[in-house]
Amino acid sequence: MNLQSLMSKRLVTVELDDTLETVKEIFDELKVHHVLVVEDHRLIGVVSDRDLWKALSPYIDSIVETARDVATLHKRVHHVMSRKPLTLQADAPVSAAIDLMLAHRISCVPVVDGDNVPVGIVSWRDILKAVAHPMGPGVSVGM
Residue 87: how many CA atoms within 13 Å on its side-chain side? Predict the structure, then answer.
C-alpha cells in the first residue's frame, strides 16, 4: 500500500507571517491537527496542534486572561513552526511514513511532489484507520 491510497488531500495551509490566532481558528473550526506552511506554494514547515498549544498562554479564553496572554495569539507562524519537515512522495510505501514517524517522533508526514509542493498529508490517525479497516470504512475483518 502506498501513501496515495490513504493520504488526505484536504490540505490546510498558512504562510510564514500568519498569526497563531489564525492557526487556532483553523484548528478550532476545521478540526485538523496540522497545518502546512508554504511559501510560493512550496512546503517550508508544519505547525501541529501541540506546537500551537506550547506557544499560546494557557489562560487564553479564561476569566483570568490578561493582555500578555492575548499577545501570544499575535505571534507569527514562523516563530513556532517545525522547519524543513520530513516528507515523502505519494508513491512511497506506508511503511516509510511509519518509519519516519517512529524514528523522529512526529505525528504526520506531508506528501509532496517533485517540486516540494504539498499534494497530501498522512497522519498516524490515517494509518490507524487503514489498519483498523483495511477494506474501507464500515467494513471490518473478524479475528
Answer: 24
